[in-house]
């Protein structure tokens, strides 16, 4: 089976205006489609798709008065699942380490609380949250991504890594 990348990731928001403002004006993504869905159960769903690069998109749905959707669900995902931190998160590509530094600096100028660069050995990342409390990341490869990074690990080695 051939793979061709991601068309879009579908996420939720309680505040479409704040979400569009953040992704358009803070991150610089272009909104491509905004539409309304009217489920048979009732209510209205606002739906927006933003281009994150290379034709791949992130989409947000804002459910208004939809009987089958709780009005107070956790749009940030982790807290609602009882998971600490940003275990479930989304990473956007940075072109190189200079681009990663530039993104961190620009996010800080735009008032976003963003981490310093974190060096994972094979990649470097910065972390921040959107208005929905979603954990986001910009990431760049910083070394060779070789098969031996995972292929030679035994179950015991994975267990040891999980404890560190």
- Tally the helices: 5
Q: Spell the H/E element sequence.
A: EHEEEHEHEEEHH
Main sheet overview? 4 strands, mixed
Can you name the CATH architecture of the largest domain?
A: Roll
Fraction of residues in H or I helices? 25-40%
Brief descriptors of the model:
2,3-Dihydroxybiphenyl 1,2-Dioxygenase, domain 1, alpha/beta, 8 strands, single chain, 25% helix, 5 helices, 164 residues, four-stranded mixed β-sheet
Give a description of the structure.
This protein has 164 residues and is of the alpha/beta class. It has two domains: 1-73, 2,3-Dihydroxybiphenyl 1,2-Dioxygenase, domain 1 (Roll); 86-164, 2,3-Dihydroxybiphenyl 1,2-Dioxygenase, domain 1 (Roll). The protein is 25% helix and 32% strand. The protein contains five helices and eight strands; from the N terminus they run E-H-E-E-E-H-E-H-E-E-E-H-H. It has helices at residues 16-26, 78-81, 97-109, 148-151, 155-163, and strands spanning 8-12, 30-37, 44-53, 56-64, 89-93, 118-119, 123-129, 135-141. The strands form two sheets. A four-stranded mixed beta sheet has the order 1-4-3-2, with helices on one face. The protein has a four-stranded mixed beta sheet with strand order 5-8-7-6.
């Amino acid at each position: 089976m051939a793979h061709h990348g991601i068309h879009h990731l579908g996420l939720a928001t309680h505040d479409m205006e704040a979400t569009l403002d953040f992704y358009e004006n803070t991150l610089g993504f272009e909104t491509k489609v905004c539409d309304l869905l009217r489920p048979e159960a009732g209510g209205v769903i606002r739906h927006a798709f933003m281009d994150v690069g290379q034709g791949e998109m992130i989409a947000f749905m804002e459910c208004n008065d939809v009987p089958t959707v709780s009005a107070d669900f956790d749009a940030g995902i982790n807290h609602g699942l009882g998971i600490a931190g940003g275990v479930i998160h989304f990473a956007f590509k940075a072109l190189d380490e200079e681009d990663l530094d530039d993104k961190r600096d620009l996010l800080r100028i735009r008032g976003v609380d963003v981490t310093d660069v974190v060096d994972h050995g094979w990649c470097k990342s910065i972390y921040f949250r959107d208005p929905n409390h979603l954990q986001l990341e910009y990431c760049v490869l910083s070394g060779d991504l070789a098969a031996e990074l995972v292929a030679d690990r035994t179950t015991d080695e994975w267990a040891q890594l999980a404890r560190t």
